[in-house]
Amino acid sequence: MATKKITTQKRRKEIIRIIQYLISGQAYFWSGYLVFFIADQLLGLNLWWAKLAANLTGWIVNFILQRYWVFNDHKLKSKQTQVTGRYIALTGLNFLLDYLIVWSLKSLGLTPYLGQFVSAGLLTVWNYLWYKYWVFKADTKK
Prior knowledge:
Layout: H1 2-42, H2 47-70, H3 80-107, H4 112-135
């Protein structure tokens, strides 16, 4: 009976974490999407620079929310440099993947604004798994 209660609590905690992750992802996406629009339409930057400006904004918003809300764990306090380094490494890879997705779709005639949604959808699960099991993974050893 106690095992069932623990399992239910873990499942509930994970569901809450996923909801928080999705909310944080929305903050990342929409802040970046707004900056992309401004960089593209108002400033006339090319796709590379507009995507970079958008992602820099989104990365800052995302890191703060993921680290201090979604994956907040006191055990990570002493590993801030490691966590930040891992986040930067994954973010660099994600930027390349995101850019290639948006660029490929634009080459096929789709608007990069639609490409942003496609890319975000593809990277959502990918990022959650990387964040949970590598970037923000707290050491479970005592």
